[in-house]
What does this fold into?
Amino acid sequence: MSDYVAVAKATDVADPGSMLVEVRERLVVLIHAAGHWYALDDVCTHDGGPLSDGPLDAAGNTIACPRHGAKFDIRTGAALTMPATKPTKSHEVKLDGEQVLVRLSDG
Amino acid sequence: MSTAIAAKGFSQAAFDAYLAARDEPAWLLDMRRKAWARFQDLPLPSVRDEEWMRTDIRLFKLDRFELPDALGHGEASQGQVPHALLAAGVNLGGRAVVMNSHALSAKLEPSLAKQGVLFGSLQHLVKEHGDLLRPFFERRVVDPHKDKFAALNAACWSGGTLLYVPKGVRIEQPLHALSAISNGGVDLDKTLVILEPGADATMLSETASTDTTGGGMHCGSIELIVEQGARLRYVNLQNWGHEVWHFAHQKGHVGREGRLQWTIGALGSRLAKVNQHVAMTGPDAEVQVNGVMFTEGKQHLSYNTHQHHQAAFCKSDLLYKAALQDKSRTVWRGMIRVERDAQRTDAYQRNDNLMLSRDARADSIPGLEIEADDVRCTHGSTSGRVDDQQLFYAMTRGYTRREAVRMIVAGFFQQVFDRITIESVRDALSEAIGRRVSDIKGL
It folds into this structure.
């Protein structure tokens, strides 16, 4: 497991809101929802669409792919609706003061 | 007059200094300036574009690279040149090497030079033979306005390779061109092959990195002009290091009764996006396209192929085969386009993918656009894993599972190898694939 990497300041992302960040040559969508922080691979497992361009539903804990509407659980990356059937990768997030840090789950 | 280049990157200042140092014909400099203006206007392609929606280049940072030093000083040296796979054991008629976009060496058999054949560095030969080459540049076989990468190559190509074969000249020995980069290097290669009417030639072209794990950028173009009744066999092996970004526009124009056999092998690079286009511009032209790909790790190879039938009685036949392992991905989008006047067209395209891992992914998207009403156009695509029944059968005959898989992968590619008429190419591709097959994991 890799180390945490600083990716943004907490004030950079509204609540609810999301932001595309790069973590060690990987694109990750950083999500701020209901006071919590989440990070997912910025890729829909159906067609490779960028989740960072899709609508975030903070109340329902989902983010949708802008291409075909597949929804993913922002907490776990689980695929919730068709046409996606496989989860997208979820990563750990923590706050260090004002700094948001992400640790890739598979290094 | 050459001047030292201080400005770096792909800035206006760097481009101005680059042009000032080139000492080229005015018409060529003018072409470069127009393409540069287009390059500056165009955005980088994005996943919102239909053609790029399966090829994400958001991690590609153009500003991490820079124009090659026009003076050719520095990093390039013969000692660093990687081993050329396609040249092994072949009696060559000529040989050219380009390193980090700088021409290193070029040799041509004197007997061929006597017949008017030109072969070697395009950068050097265009200065000596500008009047001869100008009409072929002005044809703009590859459209410099197609996208940002096409414009960048048209504006800033450097090094490059030219093969020019005069009318009726037949060359028996293949000509070989190697374009290489060192770690972090930039290759802005342009290949121009011109076969005048009735000419006949074979060109073997390959790319490689000095460090197989190294990075870099290739932004290249290939233009093949096959005039009336000419015959060209062209082989292009892409074998960059696994961190190289590869962007290429490749196009062939085949005239009346011309023949083009075009074979590509794609083994290297981190991400490759290639537009391979063949246009049959005169009646009775024939084109055969062969593609072999083997991907591993997180490689992403994307090929857009286009068989463009512009005239009647032409034939095109495309076969791409890919084997994928680990988390690699291939994208093939193929289009057969038949214009209204291209009656009696016979066109075929096929893409087969062999999935060697559960995490690999192959997207295969064939397409037809037919305006004529008397044609035969067909296509096919298959994607599948190694057949368990075939494995079981081989194992009942005494093979281990690993041996059986190797044999099945070799058999998968044999269909395309059988179409390649050049023995050395068949052997080189077969050996390169075989080496990778022997490393297949998880068996």
